[in-house]
Amino acid sequence: MYAREKVRIKSMLEMTPGRICLTSNCWSSITTDGYISLASHFIDKDWVLQKRVLNFSLMPSPHTGVALSNKLLSMLSDWGIKNKLFALTLDNASANDVAVDLLVTQLKLNGALISNGEFFHIRCCAHIINLVVQDGLEDIDKVVTKIRESIKYVRGSQMRKQVFLECVGMVSLFTKKGLRQDVPTRWNSTFFMLDSALYYQKAFMHLQLRDPNYVHCPSSIEWEKVEKIRSFLGLFYEVSNMFCGSKYPTSNLYFRPIVTCYASLRQSKNSEDEYIRNMTKKMLEKFEKYWLNFSLILTIADVFDPRYKLQFVEFSYKKLYGADSRQFLQVKEKLLSILKSTLKIVLIKMRVAEVIQWVLQVQVLILKVKCQWPWLRNLVLLILSLD
Description:
- The protein has helices at residues 2-15, 65-79, 94-108, 125-136, 142-154, 158-170, 187-199, 201-210, 220-243, 255-268, 274-291, 296-303, 309-321, 326-369, 374-386; strands at 20-28, 34-43, 49-58, 85-90, 121-123.
- Strands 3-2-1-4-5 form a 5-stranded mixed sheet.
- It is built from 15 helices and 5 strands.
- Helix content is 62%, strand content 10%.
- It is an alpha/beta fold and 387 residues long.
- The protein is elongated and about 95 Å long.
- The mean pLDDT is 85.
């Protein structure tokens, strides 16, 4: 079954008229065994977006850049797609940077990459958002601690859960939403925790009146602060979810939400709330580190989206940096360079098509005169050899 399915997918990849994008990731199991995955994303001959997991393989330690590069190159050779690649998306591990540099060097030897590999390495945007928000949440505000302790208290025993459910019923809220406990290593779990706590705010206030042992209930002012933190994190949660989609193209969805996040961070760094201000400062430092090195191809993808085009990109850079900014001119120059190189390729293909058509016409002529005028046939063959 595996061999049959592999042949089918390999045929699908060969028949794909365009380029193929890849995503890859490494991780270790509970038993410390290392694994690597490789997935392909492409538009098939029927213009349908496809995603196929090509490999899920054992990856022995250490996961160095050289080892990763060799493994990826081996998998690409096995699938026969080294000359059909456009981009490879990876997280921001330092070993991945080394692996991509080595991989690009190998692929450039055969001229397999577009624009000499300039756009080959794409950093995972969802991973960047995760790193940015984690930096901001390093120092947790005491009100977040109160929410965490409140949920721990309610979930600490069956009796407390029952009392809390009665409080929920008294304020006419649904019980199915439930309380969410956060996990320190996942920032979005903190967002879920705050979101669920805000929904049951009135229930927590009733619990405070009913249970004298419950001492972690936030004050009215603190609940307002929770709402601000939740709203602030909500934007990054939505953007992260948008980037994680696999059933729709995401390259053209990058620029607008990232610019919105950047503008939000720059605005929030002057917030009246000290915690929001301090959190934003750390996030902004991390964000700008990656913003300066993002791939221009993701901005250019927005230009080809009929909803936005070049005018939206110009508007966005104008909001961030002012009119005629160096950043926008860089995008514009790169776009014109890509269009010129694409036009050259199209013209070459048109010329090749004309030559092929001419050769076919000559071959028809040869067939016609083959029997009647041998001398004319020989003359035509001589002209072809001179060409």
